[in-house]
Amino acid sequence: NAGVTQTPKFRVLKTGQSMTLLCAQDMNHEYMYWYRQDPGMGLRLIHYSVGEGTTAKGEVPDGYNVSRLKKQNFLLGLESAAPSQTSVYFCASASSTPSDTQYFGPGTRLTVL
Amino acid sequence: QKEVEQDPGPLSVPEGAIVSLNCTYSNSAFQYFMWYRQYSRKGPELLMYTYSSGNKEDGRFTAQVDKSSKYISLFIRDSQPSDSATYLCATFNFGNEKLTFGTGTRLTIIP
After folding, report:
1. What pLDDT digit, counting tens, does each position of A29-39 carry?
2. DSSP characters for B14-72?
3. Is A41 exposed, middle or buried (0-12, 13-18, 19+ CB in 10 A)?
């Protein structure tokens, strides 16, 4: 099992550009999450999904959109990137309840110039 | 005020020392407490979790929770260079089903 994978690993964008980050998990998990990690701020929840076809806002959702068309994939979109979105983005998944262990991907390092 | 406060360090200790990592939290609704370990340029991985006040031991690691003072600790005995990582505490609120992380403490074990 690959666990949780994220694509791409690194990306540099110019202000105003758009991009999509892909998260895939092969553990048949119901719950999936997108976090951003910034120095001094810790991990902050952007959006999450409690199952295929569902999404919900987390702590810092502005400027991001998500989709969960397939159970194994959770996409994070930036429609018009801003320098404030420079961060490391982590995807995570959990089995059947939100208190289950969250398994994290390796992260995507995004720089917006 | 953040719901979970954690000293960011960095913390450097010699190999073999006992390490103490701590967090405080403000919300009494937090019921489930975890420690994640994050190696450089990797995703966090769950190290330990506990539901209740008291101690939970797993090998060289002990997690301690004091709900009366809203204090969470992780102790590492006989620390090894491979323990060098960032340690994040986290709390779970069953009411809103949210996991809240501390900012993490960067730990270096010096050989």
Report:
1. 999 999 999 98
2. ETT--EEEEEEE--TTEEEEEEEEE-TTS--EEEEEESSSEEEEETTEEEEEETTTTEE
3. middle
* B27 within 8 A of B17, measured Cβ to Cβ: no
A40 interfaces chain B, CB cutoff of 8 Å = yes
Contact A99 B41 (CB under 8 A): no
| Tens of pLDDT, residues B25-77 | 998 888 889 999 999 999 999 999 888 788 899 999 999 999 899 999 999 99
- CA dihedral (B41, A44, A98, B73) positive or negative: positive
CB-nearest to A90 from B6, B43, B98 is: B43
CA dihedral A24, B105, B100, B3 (to 10 degrees): -160
Return the C-alpha torsion angle A40, A44, A32, B42, nearest 10: -10
Contact: B103, A41; criterion CB under 8 Å: yes
**Nearest of A52, A11, A16, A59 to residue A34 by alpha carbon:** A59
C-beta atoms of A99 and B104 within 8 A = no
Phi-psi region of A27 (alpha: psi -120 to 50; beta: other; left: phi over 0): alpha
Of B42, B92, B103, the CB nearest to A99: B92
In DSSP notation, A32-58 reads EEEEEEETTTEEEEEEEESSTT--EE-
What angle is formed at CA B60 by the lines to CA B54 and CA B64, rounded to 5 degrees? 15
